[in-house]
Fold this protein.
Amino acid sequence: MTVPFLDLKPDAALQAELDAAYRRVMESGWYILGEEVASFEAAFAAHCGVRYCVGVGNGLEALHLILRAYGIGSGDDVIVPANTYIATWLAVSHAGARVVPVEPSSRTFNLDPDRLDAAITPRTRAIVAVHLYGQPADMTAIVEFAQRHGLKVVEDAAQGHGGRYRGRRVGGLGDAAGWSFYPGKNLGAFGDAGAVTTNDEQLAERLRVLRNYGSQAKYYNEVKGMNSRLDPLQAAFLQVKLKHLDEWNERRRCVAHTYLDGLHAIPELTLPFVPDWAEPAWHLFVVRHPQRELLQQHLRQAGIETLIHYPVPPHLSTAYADCGWPSGAFPITEEIAHSVLSLPIGPTLDAIAAAQTVSAVRTFAAASGAV
Ligand SMILES: *Cc1c(COP(=O)(O)O)cnc(C)c1O
């Protein structure tokens, strides 16, 4: 049996509801913003435990628009994790601000709050904290630091749907959160989609203007806005899927625990570290191994699909070559990029597939003399 990394096809049980959502939108004659978007925004805000949700085109634009709405741009510095998906950085760069990368904790892979002090400059305006792989960042420490220095805290929650930090949902832990509903995320649309959640009423109002050509009243443009609106069809689909997010995340949690129990104490294999305050969304299950390529090859031969998130850290990508960071500039991040491997996880991965993955990793370890 082959174990796919992630199966994106919708659950057959949802087909009738998705078809009904599709027909409702088609027959409404209304295809930009409107009721469907407003209704999903209300549902998602409630899910996150925040007052406002503003639906936008995708996750990158969600983050970008938050920064713009706060007036962060040219001449400003924004602290970002060195270890993240490049979209976190691009949101800052597109706003015209400078990225100031900070190394992760080597245990959690997330932004290390103890390193913030060394990264701050007189121009620092904000910190973007990423809940990477669905593991919540250490928000209390980050928010306390930000408050001491008058900085905004933006959560990049694109991998965090449904996760909790100290019992609270991610997405309401800083000043604002950017979400992606890219199909592969824990809550995924059937195309591109994104949102911002916040308790900041003024920010929500500015975002509604910025996402819609900078206008509140059609053809009266207050600012140079963008076209970044959540598609009503995607909003209708997302609302169907949102009702199942907790149950799907529970399934991910079961797979993660099968891996954590089945793979512990294998020499050289590092499992995800979950602090006691974290309830991860388990977007990805990322292990580290010094012979990551050999492990990946072994699993491929056993029919198990794995991926690498991410092979090239943003500072070494060609896109950021102009910043001139040399190899070795962020050694913890680079070590992570060299050794990580993501095992299959998802809401439809069953116990048999998870057990098969565990046994294939164990045979690799046994063959390489580690067990
Ligand atoms: C997916 C992702 C984004 C960007 O989302 P898009 O909807 O693809 O633009 C941003 N940050 C992180 C951490 C992501 O994983």
Summary: The mean pLDDT is 97. Residues 245-367 form a domain with the Aspartate Aminotransferase, domain 1 fold (CATH 3.90.1150.10). The chain has two domains: 12-242, 245-367. The radius of gyration is 21 Å.
